[in-house]
Amino acid sequence: MGAGRVHVVVLAWLITWELQNQAVDMKKMENLKRKVEWKVTEMYREKKQKQKLKRECEDPEPSKVNDSASLLQCLGPGCVYPTRPGSKYCSDDCGMKLAADRIYEILPKSIQQWQQSPCIAEELGKKMLERIHREQEDTHTRLKELECHFNELEAIILRGKQQAVCEDEESNKPGRNSVDLQICCVSCGQAISVHVALRHMERCFAKYECKSTFGSLYPTCIEGATRLFCDVYNPQSKRYCKRLQVLCPEHSKDPKVPEDEVCGCPLMQNVFESTGDFCRLPKRLCNLHYCWEKLRRAEVDLERVRALHKLEELMEQEQKVCTAMMNRAGLLALMLHQTIQHDPLTSDLRSKVDN
After folding, report:
1. What are the Cα distances from residue 247, in Å, to 17, 68, 70, 295?
2. What is the number of other CB atoms lying within 10 angstroms of the CB of residue 192?
3. What is the pLDDT of residues 72-128, one digit of tens each?
4. Which of 295, 278, 266, 304 is nearest to 149 (CA)?
5. Are the C-beta atoms of residues 137 and 252 closer than 8 Å to each other?
6. Closest Cα to residue 236, out of 250, 257, 222?
7. Within 13 Å and on the Cβ side, how many CA atoms surround 150?
8. Cα(335)–Cα(314) distance, rounded to whole angstroms?
9. Whole-model pTM?
10. Beta bridge partners of 229
11. What are the structural domain ranges in the chain?
12. Each residue's pLDDT tens digit, 283-325
């Protein structure tokens, strides 16, 4: 009997456990089913709301549009038609007609008021134009003088090259037998002799100058100007060289000096007074006037470039002043701005400063 009871109890416990598991599974299935139904309902509701908002944005209610359009009349002169949606006019022509009528009504009075009272800005603009024109004339005169100086320098160089070489002058040069002094190069800092300082510094500067580039996308086109910029095209950088042609160490190499070529540098006294004589030493041996032709030409060309830049700046200033004077009495300015003249007997509204 004890063993039979045990079996009955175990069997009852197993049956109870199976029934409990089935009940738990049924609850889980019911909960999962409720969650799925709730999610489907929420998604459907959100989808409906999005579709409703999209229809409202794309197509507003025709009843509201018709009601608002039926209540508004076009603002065009003499027009009795209803306005378009989102506009005050039935067509573009009505808006243009109303704008033209407003201009014809307001503009004559503004012009009359502008003519009655003098404008100090207009007077200042005229004075600025006069000053700019004077400076332009002076710059043009300066350019002509520099062109004459350019031709004179070329004539002097030609005369110097026609001189005969004199070997005896080499021993008469001052400082030939003096103590050999040392100075430092301004480019590399190396200690060099005074006699060859100009030659060394010129070559050293050209070596460092080749490492930097000065270019532009467009070549220089200046009417009446000769030998200014290098303008050699670089296919790698796609730029035109904008160094002075006589000083460009990258695209203009100094020619080899023949043995019988004379220096030809004009000799000076008291620093600036010309003696009329020329240095007749061989050019390859003259260290005192090394590259004097190139430096003189570069000096003249640099002055010409400065004068041309000055002309360009004056043209830009003239354009700005002319544009400001044209816009000052233009249609938009007269329609938007107004000067109130309280005293009809006073035509000049400017404040006068007591001297």
Report:
1. 107, 78, 80, 8
2. 18
3. 888 888 888 888 888 888 888 888 888 888 888 888 877 777 777 777 788 889 999
4. 304
5. no
6. 250
7. 19
8. 32
9. 0.59
10. 244
11. 25-59, 62-106, 120-173+181-336
12. 888 878 888 888 888 888 889 989 999 999 999 999 999 988 8
